[in-house]
Amino acid sequence: MRNWGTVTALEEGKCYRINRIELQPGHHISTQMHYHRSEHWIVVSGTAKVICDGQEKILIEKQSTYVPMCMPHRVENPGVIPLVMIEVQNGEYLGEDDIIRFGDAEEG
Predict the structure, then answer these.
(1) Which residues does the UniProt record annotate as the domain Mannose-6-phosphate isomerase type II C-terminal (predicted)?
(2) Which domains does the chain carry?
(3) Would you list the DSSP string of 62-87?
(4) Are 83 and 45 in contact (CB under 8 A)?
(5) Burial track 39-69 (b if 16+ CB lie within 10 A, e otherwise)
(6) Residue 107 banded pLDDT, cuts 50, 70, 90
(7) What pLDDT digit, counting tens, does each position of 33-42 carry?
(8) DSSP assignment, residue 26?
(9) pLDDT of 1 higher than 60
(10) Positive/negative CA dihedral, 63, 22, 27, 103
(11) What is the pTM (predicted TM-score) of this model?
């Protein structure tokens, strides 16, 4: 477990991966981008503050957002309960070395 929460791989295929992400209240993942994959985030429970290409939006249960390739992004949990999201990654390459992190206090 990372200090901000957990990522659980649910399924993986040739050009996709599905993860369950749980983000603790008051935490965030690092601002990052990917050259070879896009991501679709679906909020299962809690509240997500998503920053994508400098634009902020709040998502609640049953809402989703799309993060294109090469787009700086991050997600925060501004709420008081854990944020649970399903993340669908699509791309020709899904390796961990395709995560370009920008200077944030937390990693992930």
Answers:
(1) 2-104
(2) 5-101 (2.60.120.10)
(3) T-EEEE-TT--EEEE--SSS-EEEEE
(4) yes
(5) bebbbeebbbbbebeeeeeebeeeeebebee
(6) very low
(7) 999 999 999 9
(8) T
(9) no
(10) negative
(11) 0.89
